[in-house]
Design goal:
Elements (H helix, E strand, L loop, with lengths): L12 H35 L25 H10 L1 E5 L15 E16 L4 E15 L2 E7 L7 H15 L3 H16 L5 E4 L3 E3 L2 E9 L5 E8 L1
Parallel strand pairs: 1-2
Antiparallel strand pairs: 2-3, 3-4, 4-8, 5-7, 6-7, 7-8
């Protein structure tokens, strides 16, 4: 006699569907567990991070011991968290200690508006609401700080800011009025970018200029430049 074999039983459509549903359920559970574990680890790490501390203490690679800010990666992270950048223009540390190149321009775009404190020989000038500034170095020394104040939006706010500083810093009313005439003329010359400046003045051991730029589209901006 010839032996016969019974073919394996094929699952029914209902059984195949149930199997797929069980597999999908296990995959979903696994994904949820992985996501929950990652979220838990992230929450634990954040709860032990200086980002959530009320008064975080800077590490040596974030800020110098005398309070001068550093401007490499860790330094910028800290000043964004602290919402404060401190720049000593008169007696700066070497550029390398500040996380800056020995020579060149380093722009800084902040995550949030912050206060920039400019240290002179005897006092500190504070600029709140700053979103961008730049540092120029030469020979491993800070040569200039250029910052855009919060008032840099319209000529009305720019003029108000300049007039408030004029008496203390040494600009005359006629200086500001002359600048206003030049700005008005530049605004009428469409398609031409121009920069007008107030005269250099000496402020607390620093040389300070105020530059008003009008771009090709007529947009206006103010920058203060501090040099030692």
């Amino acid at each position: 006699m010839t032996a016969t074999t019974t073919p394996p039983r094929r699952p029914s459509p209902g059984e195949r569907r149930a199997r797929r549903e069980r597999l999908a359920t296990w995959i979903t559970i696994s994904v949820v567990l992985v996501v929950c574990a990652a979220a838990g680890l992230g929450a634990y790490a954040m709860s032990h991070s200086w980002w959530v501390e009320e008064a975080p203490r800077p590490a040596v690679d974030q800020q110098l011991s005398d309070g001068q800010s550093r401007f490499d990666g860790p330094g910028v992270d800290f000043l964004n968290r602290q919402r404060l950048a401190t720049v000593d223009v008169v007696a700066p540390a070497p550029a390398s200690d500040l996380g800056l190149p020995a020579d060149g321009d380093t722009p800084v775009e902040t995550l949030v508006p912050l206060t920039v404190e400019v240290r002179g020989a005897q006092s500190v000038i504070s600029f709140p609401g700053v979103s961008s500034f730049a540092l120029t170095t030469s020979g491993d020394r800070l040569a200039a700080l250029t910052l855009t104040p919060a008032a840099s939006s319209t000529w009305i706010t720019i003029r108000s800011d300049l007039e408030q500083r004029a008496t203390e810093w040494g600009w005359s009313l006629s200086d500001v009025e002359d600048l206003e005439r030049k700005v008005g003329q530049a605004g009428r010359e469409e398609g031409v970018a121009q920069t007008m400046s107030l005269p250099e003045v000496s402020v607390d051991g620093m040389t300070v200029t105020a530059d008003v730029a009008v771009d090709e589209a007529g947009r206006i901006s103010l920058q203060y430049v501090f040099r030692s």
